[in-house]
Write a structure and sequence with these properties.
about 220 residues, mainly alpha, Tetracycline Repressor, domain 2, two-stranded antiparallel sheet, 11 helices
Length: about 220
């Protein structure tokens, strides 16, 4: 059976003719590529200029697309920042919150295995740049802090509470400081981020600082 559809002039054409093909939208793959290109351009500009100084026009120009194309994928600049957070952070956050200690693995060893390489990997990555961006502009643009809290801090804090309960049940932690204040576990990374912004010529390793924190919380590994 021959299927007809209307072309731009309102004329009926066969669905498999060139006229019909021109009416078809971009493929799913092409759409995903365009969205990724826009998010990548926005990330570059946010890190270069800051959130408030970046305009949608700038993002479109950097991505090589029309301004309207940006709005096809992201309703406004806040939605664009959410998309950037999703592309840069959420995959790592999902992997982190899905991680589980092995049956014979202490929580201290588990946290070292999961967090230390992660912190080492993100120190020179867009992740650290986004954290600095949120810290710098969060008060003037509170939507940034809200997005970061919802998409990153709250999921990670919930998982840390779970791990802390597990450690307490095993007798590996005295008291419940990590259950009450789970983001204490992230304090070495926050400290390193602040230090490196203030004193870039004397860099502090977040991974090394985190290992020191584990020694304080759980005691040093036996030698």
């Amino acid at each position: 059976m021959v299927i007809f559809e209307s072309n731009e002039e309102g004329r009926l054409v066969e669905a498999d003719t060139p006229g019909a093909r021109r009416r078809r939208g971009p493929s799913t793959h092409k759409t995903a590529q365009t969205r990724a290109a826009v998010a990548r351009a926005a990330l570059e500009l946010f890190l270069e200029r800051g959130y408030r100084a970046t305009r949608i026009d700038d993002v479109a120009q950097r991505a090589g697309v029309a301004k309207g194309t940006v709005y096809l994928h992201f309703a406004d600049k806040q939605a664009l920042f959410t998309g950037v957070i999703s592309s840069v952070l959420e995959q790592r956050v999902d992997a982190l919150t899905a991680a589980r200690p092995n049956a014979d693995e202490s929580l201290r060893d588990f946290l070292s295995r999961v967090f230390t390489p992660l912190l080492a990997a993100v120190e020179d990555s867009p992740w650290s740049g986004l954290i600095r961006l949120v810290m710098t502009e969060g008060r003037q643009a509170p939507e940034l802090a809200d997005i970061y809290r919802q998409r990153v801090l709250e999921p990670v804090a919930g998982q840390i509470r779970h791990w802390a309960r597990l450690a307490a049940e095993r007798g590996e932690l005295s008291g419940d400081p990590l259950q009450r204040s789970p983001l204490l576990l992230l304090s070495p990374a926050i400290l390193a981020t602040m230090w490196n912004r203030l004193y870039p010529d004397e860099p502090m390793s977040a991974a090394t600082t985190f290992e020191g924190f584990l020694d304080l919380a759980f005691g040093p590994r036996p030698r």
